[in-house]
């Protein structure tokens, strides 16, 4: 690889980083650790690396020690695994001090993990990003031999979102005006999602649509050699339409077949896994299900509400539940589930085993039938399932405490739920 091109890429990246405005994210890094940052496209991985670079500069590291390479740069289109050493040689030409390597979207280079492992063994300072969940698989961690710490970077959470909008969320300073701003921000967040750069646009939909197309056609279809792009598009649309519902691979296959799409069930399963690997969707399993059913029958959600809202035409109930699912996924390292039992009639939207928490989601419980349904579900849960100890109903705006049959149910408005840390 031509060293002068690498130097030019590095120098241009220094200018970009030095002028970048950083919104502080809720991620922390160990000073002496090497990291792999992975997650959805445009979730803010590069900006976190910019933040780390700016921090190093403030601590006295010189710019020529910062070796930042973005592998989506078209000048690196022919870069191969054997070219990695040219980066090391270029760094040696730029500085006699310790270099800090920042390698962005490294998954584009086949065999990158060999270089990453070698550099870690040489005690180099390494920060790597990628947009592919395979990079965090057990197999990958084994191949890297525990040399890197992993961080899964998601779009803004609500606290980061309101910070970026210059809105305070300090509970001690709440006034009626503050609460009104937070309620409105929660509603905006529910519809627009948390892609950081989307906040730069008044009309966010074209930007979100553009990122969705890049994920669909680049990260899913392109990387996996999918020729049936129409089938992939329609499958994602059908998944969006089934948010809030239990769905099996067989049912999705039959739905596609009924509208004339020829796609095997194995292909449906593969496409869904590709979408998970690209951080477009994730799934929640039934805690009560047998192993085979856990894998084949699930509830699907989108990893950002902005993507879901491209399909559901402001379906507030689906958007609310999807946002609750995302928030629970952020909050807990352990798996989250839903609870469904034909034997007992239990059907609970979310269950968090690590905190023994059961959660129902309802836009409103002002309607007496809706209120009775949500409360009765939780009461039935108490009678048949003793692992749950805390009970919540998340609503759009309502807040109260319900005492019924010896249990306490907390009804929490969306904005308060989104501000919770755990």
From TrEMBL:
Keywords: ATP-binding, Nucleotide-binding. One of its GO terms (molecular function) is ATP binding. It holds the Pfam family AAA_14. Residues 34-161 form the AAA domain. SUPFAM superfamilies: P-loop containing nucleoside triphosphate hydrolases (SSF52540). InterPro entries: AAA_14 (IPR041682), DUF4143 (IPR025420), P-loop_NTPase (IPR027417). Residues 219-354 form the DUF4143 domain. This is ATP-binding protein.
């Amino acid at each position: 690889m031509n060293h002068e091109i690498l130097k030019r890429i590095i120098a241009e990246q220094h200018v970009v980083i030095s002028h970048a405005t950083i919104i502080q994210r809720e991620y922390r890094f160990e000073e002496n650790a090497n990291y792999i940052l992975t997650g959805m496209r445009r979730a803010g991985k590069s900006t976190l690396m910019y933040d780390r670079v700016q921090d190093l500069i403030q601590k006295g590291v010189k710019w020529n020690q910062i070796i930042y390479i973005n592998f989506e740069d078209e000048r690196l289109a022919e870069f191969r695994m054997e070219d990695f050493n040219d980066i090391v040689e270029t760094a040696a030409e730029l500085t006699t001090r310790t270099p800090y390597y920042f390698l962005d979207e490294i998954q584009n280079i086949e065999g990158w993990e060999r270089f990453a492992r070698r550099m870690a063994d040489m005690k180099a300072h390494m920060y790597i990003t990628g947009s592919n969940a395979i990079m965090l698989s057990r197999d990958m961690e084994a191949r890297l031999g525990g040399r890197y710490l992993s961080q899964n970077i998601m779009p803004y959470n609500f606290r980061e979102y309101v910070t970026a909008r210059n809105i305070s969320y300090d509970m001690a300073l709440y006034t009626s005006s503050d609460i009104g701003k937070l309620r409105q921000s929660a509603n905006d967040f529910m519809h627009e999602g948390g892609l950081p750069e989307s906040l730069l646009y008044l009309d966010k939909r074209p930007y979100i649509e553009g990122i969705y197309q890049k994920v669909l056609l680049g990260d899913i279809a392109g990387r996996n050699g999918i020729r049936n792009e129409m089938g992939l598009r329609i499958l994602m649309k059908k998944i969006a339409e089934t948010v809030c519902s239990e769905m099996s691979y067989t049912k999705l296959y039959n739905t596609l077949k009924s509208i004339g799409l020829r796609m095997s069930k194995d292909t449906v399963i593969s496409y869904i896994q590709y979408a998970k690997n690209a951080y477009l969707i994730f799934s929640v399993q039934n805690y009560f299900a047998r192993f085979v059913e856990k894998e084949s029958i699930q509830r699907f959600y989108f990893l950002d509400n902005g993507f879901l809202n491209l399909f559901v035409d402001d379906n507030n109930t689906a958007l609310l539940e999807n946002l609750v699912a995302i928030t629970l996924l952020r909050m807990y390292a352990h798996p989250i589930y839903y609870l469904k039992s034909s034997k007992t009639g239990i059907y609970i939207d979310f269950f968090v085993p690590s905190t023994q928490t059961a959660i129902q989601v309802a836009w409103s419980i002002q309607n007496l039938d809706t209120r009775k349904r949500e409360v009765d579900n939780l009461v039935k849960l108490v009678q048949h399932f003793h692992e749950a100890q805390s009970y919540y109903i998340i609503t759009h705006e309502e807040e109260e405490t319900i005492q019924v049959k010896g249990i306490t149910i907390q009804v929490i408005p969306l904005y308060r739920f989104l501000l919770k840390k755990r």
